Amino acid sequence: MSLRTAALSVTLLLLVLSEVWAQNPRKRMAPPKPPKAQCCDEVRSLKVQVANLTSLLEELNRKQETDMMNVVRQMMELDKQNRQQEARVTEAESKYSEINNRVEIMQLQASQSVTQSSSVDCHDFAWYYVGRYFKLCCLFQVFCDMESNGGGWTLIQRRKVGLTSFNRDWKQYKNGFGTIRGDFWLGNDNLFRMTRQPSTLRIEMEDWEGETRYAEYSYFTVKNELNSFKLLIANYSGNAGDSLRYHNNTNFSTKGKDNDKCVDDCASLRKGGYWYNCCTDSNLNGVFYRYGNHGKNTDGITWYGWHGPNYSLKRVEMKIRPQNFKS
Ligand SMILES: *[C@@H]1O[C@H](CO)[C@@H](O)[C@H](O)[C@H]1NC(C)=O
Ligand SMILES: *[C@@H]1O[C@H](CO)[C@@H](O)[C@H](O)[C@H]1NC(C)=O
Ligand SMILES: *[C@@H]1O[C@H](CO)[C@@H](O)[C@H](O)[C@H]1NC(C)=O
Ligand SMILES: *[C@@H]1O[C@H](CO)[C@@H](O)[C@H](O)[C@H]1NC(C)=O
Ligand SMILES: *[C@@H]1O[C@H](CO)[C@@H](O)[C@H](O)[C@H]1NC(C)=O
Ligand SMILES: [Ca+2]
Question: Which interval of the chain is the signal sequence (predicted)?
């Protein structure tokens, strides 16, 4: 029985009881008429019967009252139990969530200590430098690619969901943006710090037919902000074509910061932040076009060496690892 129903029943019972209590005195006060004349047997027996009935009624009333009092008492008892049970449920729930929290924290701590202690897996330098924008908790699961070409890769960029705009300003490209499990740019400051250690860049791509290609540069460096996050790459290998070579030795450009080698404003034309030359042979931070929508646009996620200037790819991942990494 719910609390509300119980409360309602109690109220109703109390109403009934007050009726009963109100009626009883009236009945008790109703005095038997005093015998005036000499009474015959018939009258006397009637009187006895009336008295009998009256007492019976009183007895019944009394019984009803105690019954009702009992019911009320039971109701109150139920009500109390209900409340106690509810309190117990609340207590259990809060205990459960507390335990859940603790388990989550423990899992976090475990995964962190695993990552921190294993310097070979997804090299630890990522841990020290990427923390500005992204929370450390998620690096182990998300930034590390242990499968591609020997593993040990730290993701620096991903395009696959298509809900995050990459048409952003200098400051956002400097610090990084997006979501770790979805699309993101790790941030140019982080790229600079991470690639002070000689690094290799690997770019993996997928088209809308499900085919995959890659381009790898065994030498990859991004300079600091004073040097406009200039790109240096060398030693291409792969099957997607060398479409980053054209961007070698160029400064980074974004919306509102035209550092390209062109009279045009490439970042505005290509709607991304990138090492634009004049303008592109690839545009990995371009606009995400879904399905058939690529074809007439040159501001998509392009890699000319594979699909030309107007095919926007379905998925891209850029990842790096130290040159001296041994799988
Ligand atoms: C009332 O009547 C019943 C039978 O009709 C009898 O058994 C009982 O004793 C009577 N009670 C009184 C108080 O007269
Ligand atoms: C490119 O690879 C060659 C051969 O492995 C190596 O000698 C050269 O130093 C590499 N260049 C850069 C810039 O890392
Ligand atoms: C790149 O930026 C630096 C300063 O940050 C500047 O000196 C240099 O001229 C720029 N290079 C190009 C090609 O614009
Ligand atoms: C990129 O530029 C650097 C510095 O000028 C050079 O050493 C390197 O070989 C160039 N890479 C390619 C692929 O041309
Ligand atoms: C796509 O690019 C190619 C090569 O530049 C060009 O020939 C073709 O007309 C373009 N297609 C569309 C739909 O713009
Ligand atoms: Ca320009």
Answer: 1-22
Ligand at minimal distance from the CA of 199 is 2
CA atoms of 258 and 275, how far apart (whole Å): 10
Distance 67 CA to ligand 4 centre (A): 99
Do 173 and 187 contact (CB within 8 A), yes or no?
A: yes
pLDDT above 60: residue 24: no
Q: For residue 144, what is the domain's CATH number?
A: 3.90.215.10
Q: Which residue segment(s) compose the domain that 188 sits in?
A: 133-161+172-322
CA separation for the pair 223, 168 (Å, rounded): 20
Is there a domain that residue 239 lies in?
yes
Instruction: Give the integer Cα–Cα distance in Å for 185 and 181.
Output: 12
Q: What is the pLDDT of residues 268-317, one digit of tens each?
A: 999 999 999 999 999 999 999 987 566 678 899 999 999 999 899 999 99
Q: What are the pocket residues of ligand 2 if the criterion is a CB atom closer than 6 Å to any ligand atom?
A: 218-219, 234-235
Total tally of structural domains belonging to the chain: 1
How far away, in angstroms, is 267 Cα from ligand 6 center?
8
Average pLDDT of 28-49? 67
Minimum CA distance residue for ligand 4 atom 6: 234
Residue 6: what pLDDT?
45
